[in-house]
Structures are given as structure tokens and as C-alpha cells.
């Protein structure tokens, strides 16, 4: 995950500093750790945010990003987005991700829960059916793609008796993220967030809650904390990008999934998925072609 980025000047030192800040050996976890260890959400979340910020910093050292460029992040990626938008320091974003991941992992251990993707079907019918089963629509990623979350028996029933014209695919996750089951994690993150001094966003920051642009520092922090138990409305973020007339998107690492959603939902919009430093030149080419 981190290996190709460690070749850049100053990155290894920054990762070591973040390791001390979070109490996690991010350098080892991002290079030589086994896959099962990295899958632990307590590890995944700070690693993802750290990697995204490393790429964002390097990108800004190479190209000029217009001040009105909107920024959005999916789930824990919203912490990285807030930092890119200037609302959080990079250190605070990584520290918040570590607390978030640790506390969400702990919340998952309190009761067996999970998540399943519901693909296709009528949106209203799917949402009504989930409500009937006592499941929450934790992620609404795009048209025809809703992630259900909740107790395992209800998810099993969903898989056995899916909504009309829909398919159900169980997800390999530790628990029901972005639902009421994460309330203890939200409380813990909120207490940590009280120690953080945020700034008003310098770039348009699209909120996971509804796709709205949020600039006020206090409101940004409030939404970042509330997001732990609230649905991710990535469909609303995509709609907001369409409304703003975006012609291209850049996805920070680990990249690929969100770029795929953009290509599917925003026809004609160019995408660059930054997987390694070698992809950074593609952004310069992209900006040049859109000039």
C-alpha cells in the first residue's frame, strides 16, 4: 500500500511521525503486514487517510489546483477530504482516523452485525424492504447500489429473500458501519474531536450526509462525527459534482472504486485513479487537456 510512495522525499519520515501520533506502526502496516492485519478497520482507516494525504500533498507540489475545485471523500475518506480542503491539519485527520477506526472496531465486537450490497431493484421498494427487516441503508453509493447494514439474521433473510429484481452480495466487513450500532464509536470520536481546532474550508467540501457544500469549521467537525452513525450519501455527492459541471475527477489512493462510480454515473467525465506516484503525471495531462 505505502511502498511506492515511500520513495518520495520526506514521506517515510512523515509516516514515522504519524505512527508515533497514532500509536500504530503505520510504516510496517503499510508495507510488510499480512493482509488479515490490514483488513482490521482499526488499521485500515488511518492507513487510508495517511495514504490519501501523502498523494494529495505530492500532487499539490506538482500541479496548481484551482481554489474552487470541490473535494469529497467516501466514509473515512471524508477526513482526508476535510484536510485537503484546509479544514483539518493532516496530523489531526490521521489522528481522528485512528480514533475512529479503533472505536468502530470496538463497537463491532459488541454485537454481531454486518453489511450487504443490494444491487438493482426499485430504490423505494428496496428501502421499504430494508426497513421492514430492521436493516439500515448505510451507503447509497449510486443508482441501483445500496448497502444494507444491521444484525446478521436480518441480513441472512435479505440474502434468502431479496427484493424484486435485486441481487444481494454480502460484504466482508467487521460490522454495521454508519448505523446506530456504531453509537459508542461516535461518542468516543466526538470527545476526541473536542480537542481539535478546525478551520473553515478553503475549498468546496461536499458532505457525505447530503452532498451539500460545508465550509464552517464547527459544522464540518459536527458532520464528521455524526457520519459514524449516519448513511453515506455518495449518490448525493455525485449529483453535486454533476450540478457543478465537473469535467474530470482525481481519486486519491487506494483508488479505483470511486472512479468506477464516476464513470458509471457521470457519463463523459474523465477520471484519474492515483494508485502510485507514476499516476501523478496523468493529472497534469488531464488539467492541460481541460484548460
Automatic annotation (TrEMBL):
Which is one Gene Ontology cellular component term of this protein?
cytosol
Q: Name the enzyme's class.
A: transferase
**Reaction equation(s) it catalyzes:** holo-[ACP] + malonyl-CoA = malonyl-[ACP] + CoA
The protein in question is named [acyl-carrier-protein] S-malonyltransferase
Top-level taxon in the UniProt lineage: Bacteria
The protein's organism comes out as Saccharopolyspora phatthalungensis
| Database matches in InterPro entries | Ac_transferase_dom_sf (IPR001227), Acyl_transferase_dom (IPR014043), Acyl_Trfase/lysoPLipase (IPR016035), Mal-CoA-ACP_Trans/PKS_FabD (IPR050858), Malonyl_transacylase_ACP-bd (IPR016036)
Query: Which GO biological-process labels does this protein carry?
Result: fatty acid biosynthetic process
For this UniProt record, the keywords arranged alphabetically read as follows:
Acyltransferase, Transferase
Which Pfam families has this protein been placed in?
Answer: Acyl_transf_1
The keyword Acyltransferase is assigned to this record? yes
Q: Name one GO molecular function term.
A: [acyl-carrier-protein] S-malonyltransferase activity
Q: What is its EC number?
A: 2.3.1.39
What Gene3D superfamilies does the database record attribute to this sequence?
A: Malonyl-CoA ACP transacylase, ACP-binding, Malonyl-Coenzyme A Acyl Carrier Protein, domain 2
| Domain Malonyl-CoA:ACP transacylase (MAT): start-end pairs | 2-291
Amino acid at each position: 500500500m505505502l511502498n511506492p510512495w515511500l520513495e518520495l522525499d520526506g514521506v517515510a519520515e512523515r509516516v514515522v511521525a504519524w505512527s508515533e501520533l497514532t500509536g500504530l506502526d503505520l510504516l510496517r502496516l503499510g508495507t510488510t503486514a499480512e493482509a488479515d492485519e490490514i483488513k482490521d478497520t482499526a488499521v485500515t482507516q488511518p492507513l487510508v487517510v495517511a495514504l490519501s494525504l501523502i498523494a494529495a500533498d505530492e500532487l499539490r507540489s506538482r500541479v496548481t489546483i484551482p481554489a474552487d475545485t470541490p473535494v469529497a471523500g467516501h466514509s473515512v475518506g471524508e477526513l482526508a477530504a476535510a484536510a485537503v480542503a484546509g479544514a483539518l491539519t493532516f496530523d489531526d485527520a490521521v489522528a481522528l482516523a485512528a480514533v475512529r477506526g479503533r472505536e468502530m472496531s470496538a463497537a463491532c465486537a459488541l454485537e454481531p452485525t454486518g453489511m450487504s450490497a443490494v444491487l438493482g431493484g426499485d430504490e423505494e421498494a428496496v428501502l421499504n424492504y430494508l426497513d421492514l427487516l430492521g436493516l439500515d441503508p448505510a451507503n447509497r453509493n449510486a443508482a441501483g447500489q445500496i448497502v444494507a447494514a444491521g444484525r446478521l439474521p436480518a441480513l441472512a433473510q435479505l440474502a434468502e429473500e431479496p427484493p424484486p429484481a435485486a441481487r444481494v452480495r454480502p460484504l466482508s466487513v467487521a460490522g454495521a458501519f454508519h448505523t446506530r450500532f456504531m453509537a459508542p464509536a461516535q461518542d468516543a470520536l466526538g470527545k476526541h474531536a473536542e480537542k481539535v481546532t478546525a478551520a473553515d474550508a478553503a475549498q468546496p467540501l461536499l458532505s457525505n450526509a447530503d452532498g451539500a457544500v460545508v465550509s464552517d469549521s464547527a459544522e464540518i467537525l459536527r458532520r464528521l462525527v455524526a457520519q459514524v452513525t449516519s448513511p453515506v450519501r455518495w449518490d448525493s455527492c455525485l449529483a453535486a459534482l454533476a450540478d457543478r459541471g465537473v469535467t474530470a475527477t482525481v481519486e486519491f489512493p487506494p483508488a479505483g472504486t470511486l472512479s468506477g462510480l464516476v464513470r458509471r454515473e457521470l457519463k463523459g467525465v474523465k477520471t484519474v485513479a492515483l494508485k502510485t506516484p507514476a499516476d501523478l503525471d496523468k493529472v497534469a495531462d488531464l488539467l492541460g487537456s481541460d484548460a
